[in-house]
Amino acid sequence: MGFLRRDFLKLGLTQAIVSAVGVPAFAATEQDGRSADGLPFQTAQRLSPSILQGATDATRTQFSILHLSKQQFNTVVRNSAGQIWQPEKIEILQQPFSEFQITKVYFAGLNLGELFFLDLLGAKDEVIERREFGMLDLNKSTLRYALCSCMDEGRHEPKIWQNLVGQNPDVIFFIGDSTYCDKGECEFPDGDTRRLWSRYVQARRTLEIYYSKRLIPIFATWDDHDFGSDDVNTTNWHHVAESQANFRAFFAQADNYTEGYFHGPGISSVLRAGQHQFLLMDDRSWRLEKTSSARYAHWGQQQEEWALEMIAGFEGTTWIMNGSQIFPEMVYKESMSKHRGQFNGFMGALKRIPRKVIFASGDVHFSEISKIESAMLGYQTYEVTSSAVHSKCFPGLDKISKHPRRMMSTTMPNYILVDSIHQAGTFTANVYSCSARNVVNFSCQLSV
Q1: pLDDT for 29
Q2: Of the options 3.30.1360.180, 1.25.40.10, 1.10.569.10, 2.60.40.380, the CATH number for the domain spanning 50-133
């Protein structure tokens, strides 16, 4: 599957154009421990270190390393010339009931354009684990990034992660359900906060992305399953502070350590890269019951005001990334639009800001692109839903759950890959739904 960024960017289209859909020649049903694309689930949990690269800029980066507490090592960065960097800072996070811990390491003084190696060194300075990585150019005019959600390790497919890494994205966004705290075998029952740590550990020990030879910066937010349990909110989940602390422990997203990245209210955050701004929203810490019409039932007041301030103060285009969908109102699924008070209030405020936004979401176990009519915000925009990388997929679900804004969809296990540029006040993106086996389920070009 080739992605011709240069050719696409020369097109400069002003509306979405649907391409031919790549249709795999195998049955889209799960059976005998295999996914809808015919690949076997691989759910073995590993004992070797699980490593994630987090927020990164041109000179600084940070890593989250999950490992057995009894496993001791030193961490250094090397380049191909043999130059060595020691960590600027090290943090260790542990729980008394777990045999695994998180070690976070922070490095500064690195350079763009170089290939680096993160080395874990044993007692005799031998390399016991090595990953390669690069730095992130926040001034690029074009960006390539992946949108991922719904990663049930019980249906883990390594090949889809290998496919993603092979597309060489600059960054990866996790937009919800990177862990299913309420599923899987665990010694602690649902509702016990110790289960949060334990299930995050199990996911980190399983997913291929954490064992990739080449690391790519990951920026994350959550939805219900990695917050605590299925469809929970603050009226029936009373461990918000514990959930927030657990989430922050596993991801490498220190506030203001790297250029262009900082925290908002709750576990929300923002990444700014050139004329691209990405708001990773927290759709759980203030959420009320799904039928609530309260003015701030979805994001809370503080977070909405923060988001509007970020959008108004940024000259480029802003992605608003949310775990739940924003616009669709499907009967069986949550969405911001069902919180009518906050949805109407936020859209009204957004319409008064002379800036443009585009939306991203996950959750629903199929991917789709929705066209948002210009009457909503004063210009045509889109919502790109990416779901699921590997979770329970129901062939035909998108055909049953229809809505008038949908342009295209797929129920195959997939992630969304985006190539985008912001030029002369216009945001243009090439969007692909990608599965393992180099299948493109749908693709289109969007302009906002």
Answers
A1: 46
A2: 2.60.40.380
